[in-house]
Amino acid sequence: MTNTKKITLPADIIHVGGGKTPEERVAAPSNLSCQLDALREKLSNPAYKSEPLYKRLGNAFRDALIEGLWLPGDKLPAEVLLAKELKISLGTVQNALNALASEDIIVRRHGSGTFVSAGKGQSRQLLHFRFFDEETGEILPVYAELVDRTLIRDNGPIARFLGGAGEYILVRRRIRVNNEFYCLSEFYIEADRFAPILEMPHQDLERVVIRHVMARSFNAPTLMLKEYVRSETFNQERAKLMQMTDTPAAGMVIDVLSYTHLDTPVSYQKIFVPAGVRKLEILETEKLS
User: Fold this and answer.
1) Which residue has the higher pLDDT, 11 or 154?
2) How far apart are CA 143 and CA 92, in angstroms?
3) Which domains can be identified in the chain, with CATH numbers?
């Protein structure tokens, strides 16, 4: 089955013209650096000065979320890193995050980290992981965890689509759906053009919608995509990452071929979905344009 979709993304996501040179891309500050700078600025807001420090930090996070510095489903920096970079105690950070969690602004998952709550705002961002509750009709929240990023060589379908010198960056991420099951994303991009991704802080790649990273950091928005769906038996490594116990471990694979300006191929993504999970909504073309 083939489904071709023409996408028009919001103006703040698409960067038309004025592309960055490789040197400018390397020198550009990371999302994490910008986020931490914004938190430092908001912590010093005179309007919050009379409040305890943990409340000031909570308000700083609220303001940052309103401004879109983190999106629904995004992973927040580790507590220890926040304490170090903001020059405040670990206890203050924990108190602030606990208060935000009690208001369902963030979700704290033992062993995985702290994430922005994935409410209805996230469903408007998702193109692929649109699993839904059949009773309520609502899209289920998803959270991304970076597995690894590596350089690979390929002379098969990835190379034929992306072109280039045959060397590519593979970013593997595990996608947790509603704390019920995992999917796996394998995201391939050309190594020469996107080399700075290998040096990005891992938090930048734990944003659920990775196309935002591509658009904002590399002037490579997704403007059109093609999807191909097939069933497959997963290898042992993929099954283990998705915590699948059935033998054989089988499910659905979605190949997503994405294009940017001038119909130029920009990324090749493989999405692995285990069998027997929630229904997956496939967006219609008119909803994306």
Assistant:
1) 154
2) 25
3) 2-20+121-287 (3.40.1410.10), 31-115 (1.10.10.10)
